[in-house]
Specification:
Helix content: 10-25%
Strand content: 25-35%
Largest sheet: 5 strands, antiparallel
Strand order of the largest sheet: 1-2-3-4-5
Distance between the termini: 83 Å
Radius of gyration: 27 Å
Low-confidence stretches: none
Number of helices: 2
Length: 146
């Protein structure tokens, strides 16, 4: 018996048994609910691997679950990837803003902390700033070297 026919036969038996159990729902409605929950073969790359679950809006925003990752994307250049092997990777086509009402700590316990900018890096605190551009500029406050 072909696989699709076996699934359809099982669905028919399941739905008629369910319609007796839930008399307020018709067998055809239960059958439609059953079909919507079955993973069927398709040419759509999002549905090829049953271990990959993809929730996608009509605006192409998606959340993808795989055995080793979770990816949230807008499919326009911005995504957040959480992977078992590499940690968290945030990619943005625009700015990224972290804002908090209390402390923000960025730390690396094992290796190093890298802050990089193509044009410059600027550290600011109230009226004092340290800017790394073609040189090092210190503005405001007192500079103490020990």
């Amino acid at each position: 018996m072909p696989k699709s026919l076996a699934v359809a036969r099982y669905a028919y038996i399941f739905c008629h048994a369910s319609s007796k159990k839930y008399p307020t729902q018709s067998a055809s409605l239960i059958f439609l609910q059953f079909l919507s929950s079955v993973h069927v073969e398709t040419d759509n790359p999002d549905r090829k691997d049953p271990l990959h679950k993809v929730f996608k809006s009509r605006y192409q925003k998606e959340v993808r679950f795989t055995p080793d990752s979770i990816v949230i994307t807008n499919n326009k250049g911005t995504r957040i990837e959480l992977t078992d092997a590499e940690g968290i990777h945030i990619v943005s086509a625009h700015s990224i803003m972290l804002e908090t009402a209390e402390d923000l700590t960025i730390a690396s316990d094992a290796v190093s902390l890298i802050v990089a900018g193509d044009s410059f890096v600027n550290f600011r605190q109230i009226g004092t700033s340290l800017q790394l551009d073609n040189g090092i500029s210190f503005i405001g406050g007192n500079l103490k070297i020990q």
